[in-house]
Amino acid sequence: MIAPNKPKILPPQGTFPARLYKIIYIGTVKGEWKGKPTENYQVSITWELPTKTHVFKEGEEAKPFSMSKTLTLSMGAKSSLRPIVESMLEVSFTDKEAKGYDIDELLGMACLLGIAYEEDANGKKAVIKSFSQLPEGMVCPPAVNPAKILSYQNFDKEYFLTLPDWIKEKMEKTPEFAKMTGKAVPTAESSDIDASDVPF
Predict the structure, then answer these.
(1) What residues make up the domain containing 103?
(2) Which one of 11, 22, 28, 48 has the fewest beta carbons within 10 angstroms of its own beta carbon?
(3) What is the rounded CA–CA span in Å between residue 13 and residue 17?
(4) Measured between alpha carbons, how far is 26 from 68 in angstroms, rounded to an integer?
(5) pLDDT tens digits, 14-27
(6) Domain-embedded: residue 9
(7) Is 13 part of a structural domain of the chain?
(8) Per the domain annotation, does 94 fall within a domain?
């Protein structure tokens, strides 16, 4: 008998205070865009919603929902990452300023996330629709999850093993992971998992 799939627990829709608590540098991922092969260095960024919590495992305390985005690590004018950073900081970078900005500086920063539901082949999912600074007078509660950056320059193997399988598999297929571990880069194309918005 096949075990039934557990219903996906989604955060509520709306706009909520959030805090960026995790940055994972995935590495160079192969993919495809409009029929052409691509190679992009990806980063996964995660925010917690400290005012929206749920008991995810019986017997444990309620924990905040989290929302993640997997993006190409680029601050170019047409990148997806740059408008997120500019919205969180409420600034408009010049190209030179954007190129020199270190996204690690966002760790621990509070902002507002707008969340909505969308439907895809796998059913309903929560996606981040907007980013902005907190309005004057609004306070984001203190962080619940520990702040963490995982990069190949500062690799924490124990922390890596706690990551979701999809992100571990992506990292293991990158040349950066292969160089670090001394193993050959897998010849099979990396799976292009659509994990740009992970609810928890």
Answers:
(1) 19-108+145-181
(2) 28
(3) 13
(4) 13
(5) 999 999 999 999 99
(6) no
(7) no
(8) yes
The token pair at 37 is 């092969």
Phi/psi at 14 (5° precision): 140, -170
Distances (CA, A) of 91 to 51, 101, 117, 177: 26, 12, 28, 34
Entry pTM: 0.86
For residue 198, the 8-state DSSP code is B
Is there a domain that residue 100 lies in?
Answer: yes
Distances (CA, A) of 1 to 4, 6, 38, 115: 9, 15, 40, 36
- C-alpha angle with apex 9: 118 to 22, nearest 5 degrees? 85
Domain count, the chain: 1
- Structure tokens of 134? 């907190």
- How far CA 144 is from CA of 16, 53, 80, 82, 147, in Å, comes to 15, 11, 27, 26, 9
Helix H or strand E encompassing 66: strand 63-72
8 A C-beta contact, residue 80 and residue 58: no
- Percentage of the residues of the chain whose pLDDT score is greater than 70: 88
pLDDT digits (tens, 9 = 90+) for 56-93: 888 889 999 999 999 999 999 999 999 999 999 999 99
